[in-house]
Amino acid sequence: MQSRRYAPVRSPHQPDVAPGRSDGYGARPSPARLAHHRHRQAVLMRSATLHGQDGFTMVEMLIALSIFLLILMGVFQIFEPSNAAYVSSERKLGVQQNARIAMDMMVRQIRTAGFFPENLTTDTTDDVANPVGVQIATNAALAVAGDLDGSCATLPAGPCAGASKAFVFCLDNSGLGLRRVNAVLNAATGVAASYVCSGGDLLAESVTSLGFAYYDANNNPIPSPPALDGQPAEAVPALNDTTQRSVVRRVVITLTARESVPNQPAQTYTLTSDVRLRNP
Fold first, then answer.
1. CA Rg, the chain, in Å?
2. Cβ–Cβ contacts within 10 Å for residue 263, how many?
3. Count of beta carbons in the 10 Å neighbourhood of residue 22
4. With a threshold of 0.70, does the pTM exceed it?
5. In sequence order, what are the residues at sequence separation of 6 or more whose Cβ sits closer than 8 angstroms to the Cβ of residue 155?
6. Looking at the predicted structure, is the pLDDT value of residue 20 above 50?
7. Could you give the CA distance from residue 197 to residue 177 in angstroms, rounded to a whole number?
8. Which residues pair with 227 in a beta bridge?
């Protein structure tokens, strides 16, 4: 009697056999299983290779940090003088610019002293009595009068009442700088109510000295020890005797500004302007 042969039953956990074999005996691993095995071996070998190379020691970190700090200190030492020089130059430029602006304003307004448009209109009711252009002239202060900012442009019809003012240029005794007093003239007297320097507007800081020299039409110096016609500064001018003030045709202004920077020597800047009056 011929015996019956049965095919072996494959376990569900048995790996897939290689192509070409169907009996399940001596089957080769599938390509997917081989790839997984190789990947696992590579990971294990890589972990063994990296063992002992997982970071820096504390000593190495301290050495690296010390080197970095030394480099950073060197960079600061290079750039700190440059920054100090830049700040110093900016302060110097600011002082010079403020002094020049103040000088330009003085020159422009002193040049137009003596122009009283109220006295040039057809309306005589607003004429300024005693139209004196230079009201106070000392070696450190100057007060000029007239339409110094060009506020009246309706000549000869007018009206120009109140156009004339008195501007006083002086140095603040408290050391704050150059000031300008802006006062409205009294048409009946031709003078303003106050010529006090401390009540004026600050034109420029850091101005340490201000000087004026006066000349006549022939460029001869007019003696001013210390004030023309004996008229002191910061006082309402007396216009009954203007012998010296009335012949002023040229004014030389000298202005000195001082720039101070901490830990550096102070520097001074002197500006000079020669002004000729247009309305003698």
1. 47
2. 6
3. 9
4. no
5. 117, 120, 121
6. no
7. 11
8. 138
156 preceded by a cis bond (ω within 30 of 0): yes
Phi, psi of 155, deg, nearest 5: -75, 145
Question: Would you say residue 59 has pLDDT above 60?
Answer: yes
How confident is residue 269, by pLDDT bands cut at 50, 70 and 90? confident
The residues, ordered by sequence, that sit 6+ positions from 107 with a Cβ below 8 Å of its Cβ are: 253, 273, 275
Residue 254's closest CA among 219, 214, 224, 210? Answer: 210
Q: Choose between 92 and 117: higher pLDDT.
A: 117
Confidence of residue 168 (pLDDT cuts 50, 70, 90): very high
Give, as one character, the DSSP assignment of residue 249: -
Cis peptide before 226 (omega within 30 of 0): yes
Candidates 117, 113, 112; CA nearest to 136 is 113
Q: List phi, psi (to 5°) of 181.
A: -90, 125
Buried/exposed code over 71-99 (b: 16+ C-beta within 10 A; e: otherwise): eeeeeeeeeeeeeeeeebeebeeebbebb
**What pLDDT does 96 receive?**
82
Indicate the helix (H) or strand (E) that contains 38.
helix 31-50
Domain range annotation of the chain: 88-276
28, 17 Cβ separation under 8 angstroms: yes
Indicate the average pLDDT of the chain.
80
Query: What is the bridge-based pairing of β-strands 267-276 and 250-259?
Result: antiparallel
- Tokens matching residue 64: 């690296």
